[in-house]
Amino acid sequence: MKPRENTAPPSQTIVPDKFLDSEGMLIPTNISKELIAQLADDHAYPDGRYKKKELEDLLSQTARPSPAAVNYDVIKLNHQFFAVFIGKDYSLGKGASGKVKYLQSLTDSSWHVVKIIPQRKISQHEFQREVHNLMKAGMGTGGFFRESPSKGGQYVIVMKHAPGISLDKLLSNENIKLKPDEWLNICRGILSALDELHQKELFHFDIKLDNYIYDPETKTVRLVDLGLATDIIEGKGHILSDSVPPNAAPECEQPIPPDRETAEVDYIVTYHSESYAAAATMLDLLGKEGVIDKEKIPDPKIRTELQTLLRSMVNADSPEARPSVKTALNTINHLLQAQQKLSQPRENRPQRTGFFTRDRMGNAKARTPDTPAPSADSNKKV
């Protein structure tokens, strides 16, 4: 079957309806209130992950529900409670550092994802940096749970769920056909999400297609993964890392001193380098080798103006000459409006109040709305 013109997938299904109650809750409200009341005792139940068996024992004291109905764990973290869906078929699998699962807030029913990372996998500094960034951006929180003396502890990072599809997967899915104004709208989302992060006094540093999530239902774009983000201090940010991200600006590259015991380098991030990375990401989205695909942006005038903008943003010789993220966002908005006008059916396009007609000699003259349109006979030669 031939795919439709726009086959963008729906937002990612989190947990099947059969596991939720009529209000969309993984744990029915009356039961979650009981669990919260019992787990609220910080001395008996400190921050941590409470497994299915322990919850069954707690609930058996009140005879509700039956143990068979418990298909979740509960995470207690910074006076917040989350239900962890433990169905293996519906988890997000394993990330680079540890397991990734879905969970639901027991207070407002919002969905989140949780990264559970063994203590040996990342340093305390890396963990604290990511949690600081998430909390500053209003995107999540984290904590440290000690499992046992033999197993050590686990770092737990809870983040708001971003429904949709990452831009790298969107690009590789041949069944997804977007219109020119939709591609431009995604570009606007890339810049807008980055601008919002900057307003929260954070540089992202790891800007790439993988770290943007596009929701085809709301047409919105979110910037995720703040593991390498850093505070903006007097227009600059410093980040210790053992590698430079793929879209980092050339001036971010720093030689590793030969006498260093660690491979980590102090990279300097600026508004100019973030502008470079955003443009490189948009060029990855729209074309190949820095050239915008004509099929994605077919109008030559819009494509040329967009190409000029993005090339100026990846100016390697003069970072200060790059357009800022805000300036680029204004230009993209202008181009999107122009594309939307072109995409309208001809009868719906705005009509000009004055335009030109020609007299019998072929001379152009302005025709007002009162001037009748020339008939077919009026152009015949006498």
UniProtKB/TrEMBL annotation:
Domain Protein kinase: 86-336
GO BP annotations listed: intracellular signal transduction
Matches recorded under Pfam families: Pkinase
Gene3D superfamilies reported in the protein's UniProt record: Transferase(Phosphotransferase) domain 1
Record keyword ATP-binding present: yes
Key words, A-Z: ATP-binding, Kinase, Nucleotide-binding, Transferase
Keyword Kinase attributed: yes
GO CC annotation, single: cytoplasm
GO molecular function annotation: ATP binding; protein serine/threonine kinase activity
InterPro entries (UniProt xref): Kinase-like_dom_sf, Prot_kinase_dom, Ser/Thr_kinase_AS
Coiled coil stretches, renumbered: none
Segments of this protein annotated with the region Disordered: 339-382
Name assigned to this protein: Serine/threonine-protein kinase PrkC
Organism: Aquicella siphonis
